[in-house]
Design a protein that fits this description.
Elements lengths: L6 E6 L4 E6 L7 H7 L5 E6 L1 H14 L5 E3 L9 H13 L6 E7 L1 H13 L5 E6 L2 H7 L4 E6 L2 E8 L4 E4 L9 H18 L1 H9 L1 H5 L3 H21 L14 H10 L7 H18 L5 H13 L11 H8 L5 E2 L2 E2 L1 E6 L2 E5 L4 H11 L4
Parallel strand pairs: 2-9, 3-4, 3-5, 5-6, 6-9
Antiparallel strand pairs: 1-2, 7-8, 10-11, 12-13
Helix pairs in contact: 3-4, 5-6, 5-9, 6-7, 6-9, 6-11, 10-11, 10-13, 11-12, 11-14
The structure holds nicotinamide-adenine-dinucleotide and zinc ion.
Nicotinamide-adenine-dinucleotide (NAD) binds next to helix 2, helix 4 and helix 5.
Length: 364
């Protein structure tokens, strides 16, 4: 099958420039895309049993044959022992420096196999073929790889830019609705931080997006990738502008860790986190109430989020203190100032936070 039309987005970072290729059927072009990216010739696939069962046959055919390294992909397996299984398979196969690891899976597979690629022989090439909406619009681009430590999420990691990213929206057909929705909150995040046009498009075409109609889905994926690529190119290591992509993540991460990563999909927690940030901004007079309401309406239009009424604001505040966004004791918040624009502040008080958490629905 040939790809009808593909979109190519270049990500130009100091350490590497690579292309994100987006298009229905893009997976079928993987061999050509790997060659074009000068990805070294010994190619290994890393995937999970589930993803491989769903998409492995098509992928292996497109790769002209590849033996997969299959590892489990739940968040609780995103740990060093799983990465060690990838190393074991590479060592067993005598993988040398001319190796490319091609990841086929969601963010967990991409982060783990990317970390294996960053560290095996001090670094071999990686190409990401993301299969969740979240991985397609977010984790596959930007080079952050790593695993969780029992004491905290993503505590062990590296920056390791891929040689290429291949995004095929057709693989999302098999994605459970809840996972799909979770990815959409991150798309809303891009709209809210960087593009009112994207924000409006999600609101306008919500039904077609949910139906995964290519003409609705591909443009929002491509626009999200463009925004991520642009931000990453300006700030590869998250020293400045890249921090705006943490919008919704300060409260979001606290909600996730407080509920031990069991109640919420990451994107769902970000849904709440964005509401908290928007309410903080509104209360300061930094965001018009109409814009706050537009965000709240769009988040609500995707469907109900897991309940929060049993989570106390004081627990959220406590969890926030352990966040990586605490720099020298000050918590950084990305606040929206309009749809498509943000500012970063470090002077949000506990009182303001408590008030915002209450408005959003957390217990006192
Ligand atoms: N590196 C980064 O910059 C970055 C950015 C955001 C998130 N992340 C990380 O990404 C992870 C979350 O990624 P995720 O949401 O993709 O979760 P995931 O990788 O756990 O995938 C979610 C579930 O979907 C299944 N799945 C994947 N593709 C499928 C498909 N096409 N059809 C059916 N099922 C499919 C998986 O088997 C899994 O059960 C987190 O660990 C997070 O820390 C990393
Ligand atoms: Zn996120």
């Amino acid at each position: 099958m040939t790809v009808v039309s593909t979109i190519a987005i270049d990500v130009a970072t100091p350490s590497r420039t690579y292309t994100v290729t987006i298009g229905d059927g893009a997976i079928d072009e993987i061999a050509r895309l790997l060659d074009r990216a000068h990805a070294p010739a010994r190619r290994f696939a890393v995937s999970s049993p589930l993803v491989w069962r769903l998409h492995g046959a098509q992928f292996a055919r497109a790769m002209r044959g590849v033996e997969p390294i299959l590892v489990p992909d739940g968040e609780r397996f995103k740990q060093l022992p799983t990465v060690a299984r990838i190393y074991d398979a590479l060592v067993r196969a005598n993988a040398d420096r001319a190796t490319t690891i091609v990841t086929l899976g969601g963010g967990v597979i991409g982060d783990m196999a990317g970390f294996a690629a960053a560290s095996y022989l001090r670094g071999v090439a990686v190409v990401h073929v993301p299969t969740t909406l979240l991985a397609q619009v977010d984790s596959a681009i930007g080079g952050k790889v790593g695993v969780n430590h029992p004491q905290g999420k993503n505590l062990i990691g590296a920056f390791h830019q891929p040689h290429a990213v291949v995004v095929d929206p057709l693989v999302l057909a098999t994605l459970p609705r809840r996972e799909f929705r979770a990815g959409l909150y991150e798309v809303i995040k891009y709209g809210m931080t960087s593009s009112a046009a994207l924000f409006d498009r999600i609101a306008r075409e919500r039904k077609a997006i949910f139906a995964r109609a290519p003409e609705a889905l591909t443009p929002i994926i491509a626009e999200s990738c463009r925004i991520k690529a642009d931000v990453v190119a300006r700030d590869e290591r998250e020293a400045g502008p890249r921090r705006i992509l943490n919008f919704g993540h300060t409260a979001g991460h606290a909600i996730e860790s407080l509920t031990k990563y069991r109640r919420f999909r990451h994107g769902e927690a970000i849904g709440y986190g964005m509401l908290v940030a928007a309410e903080l901004a509104r209360a300061r007079g930094a965001l018009a109430d109409a814009d706050r309401k537009a965000l709240a309406d769009l988040v609500a239009s995707l469907g109900p989020l897991p309940p929060i009424a049993d989570l106390a604001s004081s627990q959220i505040l406590e969890a926030m203190q352990h966040d990586k966004k605490v720099v020298e004791g000050r918590l950084h918040f990305v606040l929206p100032t309009a749809i498509g624009a943000t500012t970063i502040v470090d002077d949000v008080t506990e009182k303001e936070l408590r008030a915002a958490l209450k408005v959003v629905g957390f217990a006192k």
